[in-house]
Amino acid sequence: MGWASPPPPSRSSRTRQISPWSPSPSTASSPTPSPSAASAASPTSPSAAVSWLAIVLLPETMSIAFLTLFLLLGNLGASIAEVANDAIVTEAGKQLQSPSMSGQLQSFAMMSFASAGALGNLLGGIAINLLSPRTMFLLFALLLLLQFFTTVAVPESSLNLPKKAGNSSKSSSIRKQLSELKIALRKPEISRSIVWFSASYAVVPLLIGTMFFYQTQHLNLDPSVIGFSKVFGQAALMAWSVAYNKQFKKTPARKVLSMLQVTIALLMVSDVLFVKGIYRDMGVSDSVYVVIFSGLLEALFQFKGLPFTVLMAQLCPAGCEGSVMAFLMSALALAIIVSGYLGVALAAFMGITGTDFSGLTVGILIQAACTLLPLCWSSWIPDTGRPEKKEE
């Protein structure tokens, strides 16, 4: 889920927010997986490559509306590919017969993702100082095309996924999948877990995008600092994935997710001390804080998805994994949109603008308090996942 830092907006721009990944002074970017910019980092759909190539080839006078359209096209393809990727990982992981190996494939996928993200951010940070923006877009588009053709060349039979029974039509296959999804969602341990996980994003008015604007425009930190922050975050994500697979895989999911939620809230409170300049007075430079703490916060949002997807893979009836994961990703995407608009409302209510950050500390405290709210119904998450057979 690594991606290069977006260009900072103009200092004169007013408080605004388009999504929780927007680098405007009013909201947040992460992680997440998310759901989001994270998806845009690893698409296998050609639509993403087409959108970047269009930006490269079309004249610089292209309107904001057309630019937005191409970005939406890229994110659409990336989102579809991300859902398919999560479903494949979940279904393939369910083929492992040994309970001790449960969640191992998800951990490996997260480790691979984090290592690629760290390398990509590092190379992107170097290249952005050497190449023009158009050249960067072109290289990224070519990499996406290479990834797409490589993915297409992999035979589906090598994934050892369950075979479809008979030669059923697409419409009957869709009806069957919807029926299986309905059966799975009737299980309280599945439906309540999905509601909790989605709500853990939706109820939080994220302000990390505001922090991005504050760091780059108000504190005038070099963009390379933001890039190194993402590299550090991806490295931390890889380390946590290894630690989870080795040490915490057998820890109850409720305990792991609750601890992560509390840790995220504590890092948000730490941002209050950063904005007040307390760390600066202690001798910790702004650059060091941003690299370490901002990177950790972003990585935690992404890492939270690992124990939850492992839990879902354990709870899902056999054969329903792909449908349930697709539903989960859709619910998560909606939750992130809600979170983004709540961030807009919070930033506007606190009077945060491109030149006035006096309400930022209180806004961050409200954000941290909202992050702790999901702990009130954490009992909806089962302590352990247990594989079940699909109901007929």
From TrEMBL:
The keyword Transmembrane is assigned to this record: yes
Keyword entries, A-Z: Membrane, Transmembrane, Transmembrane helix, Transport
Keyword Transport: yes
Bilayer-spanning residue ranges: 49-73, 108-130, 136-154, 194-214, 226-244, 256-275, 287-312, 324-351, 357-380
Disordered: region residues: 1-44
Similarity field: Belongs to the major facilitator superfamily. Folate-biopterin transporter (TC 2.A.71) family.
Protein name in the entry: Probable folate-biopterin transporter 7 isoform X2
Species of the source: Elaeis guineensis var. tenera
